Amino acid sequence: MSDPLTDAVGAVVSYLLRPLVFLLSHLVPRNDRVWAFTADQSGRFAENGKYLFLHAVGRSDEIRPIWLARDREVLTELRGRGYETYHVDDWPGKYVALRARCVFTSHGVPFWQYIGGATVVQMWHGNALKRLGNDIESGTSLLVRSHRKHVIRNWDRFVTTGTADALAPFTSAFDVTPEQALPTGYPRDDVFFESVEGATVGLGEYDRLRELSEEATLISYMPTSRNAFEGDQGTIDGSELGIEELDRTLVEHDAYLLLKAHPWSNVELDEAEFDRVILLPSDLDIYPVLPLVDVLVTDYSSIYFDYLLLDRPVVFYAYDLDAYRDARGFYFDYDEVTPGPKPETSDELHEWLRHFLQGDDGFEDERARVRNRFFRHQDGGASERIYRHVRDEVLDLSADRSDSVEDGTRRDTERSVEPGRSL
Fold first, then answer.
1. Are 343 and 349 in contact (CB under 8 A)?
2. Contacts for 311 with CB less than 8 Å, ≥ 6 apart
3. In the chain, what are the domains?
4. DSSP tag of 139
5. Does the chain have fewer CB atoms within 10 Å around its N or its C terminus?
6. Selection from 213-227, 230-244, 260-274 with the highest mean pLDDT
7. pLDDT score for 1
8. Whole-angstrom Cα distance, residue 354 to residue 248?
9. More reliable by pLDDT, 323 or 419
10. Nearest-angstrom CA–CA distance, 375 and 306
11. DSSP label at 281?
């Protein structure tokens, strides 16, 4: 049995050594054809990293894509599907991080100490409506700010959806320059336009929801994280929705409500008490599901920007708008960039849902205006644009595309997970 004190001391020493490891990692030679992918802190297989990885797997005659997992179940699932993946805390995973020329992420990189000298592509996780980064961080020391800017947020490329308004918040929040910006669109949105092999990996709910969507109307309620509030103000218990009356409305119109909370939110709701309410796991990758959804209900979540690409109704149920704006703040005028009705009470919410359930709309032009304001590309080609940019312009690999990722000979596209393969 390990000693808690020894473990604690070891953890502190390891943490303090990370800056030194980061400096030394610059000395490790990197393999231009080894690309490492990861997602968010939860360890799930999701976000932009997932979709670019799946795209890159199809180009494995040119490069060697490797998923660095943070969750053991995800590791097992992906290996079982034939994808090359390692856990970031195991030595093979650390070695991949040290040797990969490119690291793709949509959040922070927990293994940042191993990626000195790598090309880091930050794909982020949505257009910014709420303030973030520099614009909400206060009271931090000069040392912490310097560490964030020069190490944690020292990104070589930053993916945006391609317009000036899409980039502006990140220039303010993270000091992203136009030279860093990669205006390609988000890989996770590709699944709206075309089938992506592997997109439903780990989504046990998908088949059920797809079948349901063929028989009934699906409404999804996806509020943002409520961590801007203290105490129980961020709890989702259904009272804000008038859930009992809403359930009856859903029955009347042969519709279902898919409730997916933000991973940081607290949900106190029992699905068994309702006929037409389905609780989705908070860590579910929602992007393969969104094309099945007929109406989106949200508040301040950036999910609605992506959903605009499907050109379907969005209801902005911002019942605590003033309080949230005071607590977090926005980059844009809320009314200007939210193309849909804005009910303030549950009764008004039900009225607007009945409006859309009856087949009425009326917000098509508004959605098009906001969609064009934030998306340069409105297609399924984001992954390919990023892939080509990094391959051709960052690494200049386009001149010799038939080389192996290992020894200069062309190889087939079989995906191996043998730990002994050379990097």
1. yes
2. 364, 367, 368, 371
3. 14-193+379-400 (3.40.50.11820), 206-374 (3.40.50.12580)
4. S
5. N
6. 213-227
7. 55
8. 12
9. 323
10. 9
11. P
